[in-house]
Design goal:
The chain is α/β, with parallel strands linked by helices. Helix content is 35%, strand content 17%. The protein has a 5-stranded mixed β-sheet. Strands 6-7-8 form a 3-stranded antiparallel β-sheet. A hairpin with a 6-residue loop joins strand 7 and strand 8. Helix 1 packs antiparallel against helix 2. It is globular. The termini are far apart.
Length: 185
């Protein structure tokens, strides 16, 4: 499929509680049966690896990811921007719950759907996307508390994942660690 030249750019934030949050306002949390990505990962963490129940839950996770990706509206979209998450589960103290969270499978499914529809996929660094205000650009760790984002500078309040997806869709300059430590905002 040829790549689209006209349309808008959307950003997608990938999370544990809300599987996919799109910058056009779509949030895909649960399927019609009430399963969320977090509940599937919790059930997967309780299963013995290699057992039939574990394999069934992995298939359930794959089906849920495909359900979420198929719910995204790609009409009039020319570019899809997603976070480039790497090395999330490294280290000794990684929880068993987090080991069931498969971001690579989500990325692969999103990329396959986008390329089939002729949408260009761009991966961006996820640094400070959930802590930066999408209205004024103020970056503070205290801006995000759980699922709620509240800017300490302008007072903008929104869902934290939705705010992160807005930041991913915008062409914002990257904030280096040195600049962030100087607290210049």
């Amino acid at each position: 499929t040829p790549i689209k030249k006209e349309g808008k750019t959307i950003g997608i934030d990938i999370g544990q509680k809300t599987c996919l949050c799109v910058s056009n306002g779509q949030q895909i949390e649960a399927d019609p049966h009430g399963h969320t990505y977090m509940s599937i990962c919790k059930e997967l963490a309780r299963k013995k690896k290699g057992s039939k129940g574990f394999l069934r839950k992995q298939q359930h996770r794959t089906n849920f990811i495909n359900y979420c990706v198929n719910r995204i509206n790609f009409n009039g979209v020319k570019e899809l921007r997603i976070e480039k998450i790497r090395q999330l589960r490294t280290g000794k103290r990684t929880s068993r719950l987090l080991s069931g969270w498969s971001y690579k499978e989500i990325f692969d499914s999103l990329k396959a759907k986008a390329t089939a529809l002729g949408v260009h996929v761009t991966e961006l660094s996820p640094t400070y996307t959930s802590q930066r205000c999408s209205k004024c650009g103020w970056v503070r760790k205290s801006n995000r508390k759980g699922k709620v984002f509240k800017c300490g500078n302008c007072g903008y309040t929104a869902d934290a994942d939705l705010n992160a997806s807005f930041n991913i869709s915008l062409e914002l300059p990257a904030i280096s660690k040195e600049v962030r430590l100087r607290e210049l905002n």
